[in-house]
Amino acid sequence: MVGLAEITAGDIFTGVLLQLGGGGILGFAAGYALKKAIKILLLVVGVFTLGLMGLAYYGVISVNWDKLALLVERAISGGGAAAASLKSYIIAATPFAASFLVGFSLGFKYG
Hints:
Blueprint: H1 9-57, H2 65-92, H3 94-110
Helix pairs in contact: 1-3
């Protein structure tokens, strides 16, 4: 077991570098993947909506657009609660979180 006196500044520096590097790499990967997933999701939702509009135009189906808008609004508002809990976790893990957020923003930008 390593005592407190045996831990050197180099060990601390190495640990912080590993957290920063790992956080940056994982953040970039997460941001890149999220942006790609959002693009695919928006494509699927767009094609689905165009399909509904076409079928409604030709009288094949009847769409209650008000209820559909309410469902979408509820789905969007549910994401806010998840983001709030993620924020509290990120604040607790500062070095990793800081580099993760930088990497995430770069991955999202270039994804």
